[in-house]
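#struct-queue
[09:14] JT: dropping the first one here, sequence first, then the structure tokens:
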Amino acid sequence: MKSYTLKELAQQLNAEIQGDETLVIASVATLENAGDGQLSFLANSKYRAQLDSTQASAVLISAKDAAEYKGNALILNDPYVGFARTSQLFDTTPKAALGIDSTAVIHPTAKLGEGVAIGPNAVIGENVILGEQVQIGAGSVVGQDCIIGSGTRLWANVTVYHNVHLGQDCIIHSSAVLGSDGFGYANERGKWIKIPQTGGVRIGDRVEIGASTTVDRGAIEHTEIHDGVILDNQVQIAHNDIIGENTAIAANSAIAGSTKIGKHCIIGGHSAVAGHLSIVDGTHISGATNVTSIIREPGVYTSTTIAMNNKQWRRNTARFRHLDELFQRVKKLEKLNNTDK
């Protein structure tokens, strides 16, 4: 197991050392549960009380909190980012595959880069290109004419349809589906006529896609997921969507077709974005929000209501039905008031 001195970690994080620089750290833990040889962090003020009682050997901490803490610490501007980077150093996650399993089915036209690993019962289709150090987990399928960039990992049972391109250093979690048909139909006198989805999917570098998330292929042009995007579990990305760089979309959210979401956006869980819209860079959508119109100005947008007692919720819901009537009454009263003046 890897271990680092506090001095070595400080150099990795560009942090200031408080205390014993020769102290050896072997893992990370929470303030509440940390023990000897472990490094913890304080990134949220509501856990400040735990700092006094923690048994962690050292703590990642801001300069403000360090002024009141006498133990070993690494001081930096953003302790949570420091925790993320430190966790990578101690990461014990196994590889998605080791070597090329004898049960893997690999088309003779496929091109495999150096160090590619393919797990049991995986299928690699015609004209597929796998870059160096790509890992394909057990039971995964990579369809015809796909390209997967160097260092990308597919965990078990991922399905990649035909004509899907993934960039470098992506992580695709189990049961994700990339390149399934978009929901494209025309209605002829009550009968649905399928529109073939002939576009592909283009995914940039350092993209992470959660378990059971679906990214549909484009109807004509490609669906695009740009560099650094993170998609949580069970997210739906519909055909011809464009998701800008470093945008994050939390679980159970759905983005309808032909919608463009800008760079550095955050979309909270269980949100829905209607089709054929655009959302400007830097927008933050609160959880369970329904977006039904274009967002042109960055900011925080919310449409959900807070949790409340069910009896109160029922009363408020009943009153909501009369909102337009109430508005018209107020408008009439304001008009009468202005006339009296």
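[09:21] JT: and here's the second one, same format:
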Amino acid sequence: MTPVAAGSVALAAGLDRLVAEPPATVHPVAWLGRALGPLDRRWTHPRLVGVLVALAVPLLAAGAVAAAVVAAARVDPLVGGVVAGLVCFVATSRRMLIDEARTVVALGETDLPAARERLRALAGRNADSLSAGEVRSAAVESAAENLADGLVAPLAGFALLAPVSLPLAAAAAAWIKAVNTLDSTFGYRSKPMGWAPARLDDAVMWLPARASAALLAIAGGRPAALRSARSSARVPDSPNSGWPMATLAILLGVRLEKPGVYALPGGTALPTRADADRGVAVVSRAGWLAFGLAGVIALC
């Protein structure tokens, strides 16, 4: 079964390179986001609702995916591998992240208002007053952070369970993606029901965030950057996002900053266009390393 699982990872990587993302109209993650919409309202006991949602939604997603892979594998093991690869593909994102970050960085040189507007697809912050350097910083930060939750985390879940069971591996990727989707939908201080989804996401992302930082350090050719980033990784409020962002700041030798919130001191100046392009390229290489490592683990 493990060669089939490795083939599933290869299929996901190939589709990421060729397609980037399925259209939103047929993307299961987009379907989940829309299905969660009615839950975003006032509740009498919001924390209890949040706990129930955090428990139920990822389990339902994982169960549906596992059942689909089991049914496909009964037709033929290779068909099961294809379905698992499709699950892995829709649960991960590399090329779209890289393309969006590159577009924002490029627009920052020629059309700053357009860059600020495009940044909204990457970073959850008010971009209206950001300078060009701050826009570039946000694009680089978001590329590093989303490497962890958008690629490394679901890939890790898939790869670690692939030697045990292909349906369980696909279910793990779907479960992690659902947890992350819940956090991105409800995990804000302004949403009382978001406490449980946010805490669950923090727990799930603990290892992938640090693994992503290690992949960035390797992809940047400076493994020691991970150790150098340890102190500044704790600067952001999040227990996880600081690790890949601080590591990339060290690699680039720049200051990555969310104005009024945090500054990651890899250097003194905000990233230039060349710095930002180099940072996005490092994230892209780290993404390919993640796919390769997941394929190797799936073979074990």
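[09:30] RK: nice, looked through the second one.
[09:31] RK: The mean pLDDT is 94.
[09:31] JT: good to know. Residues 2-299 form one domain.
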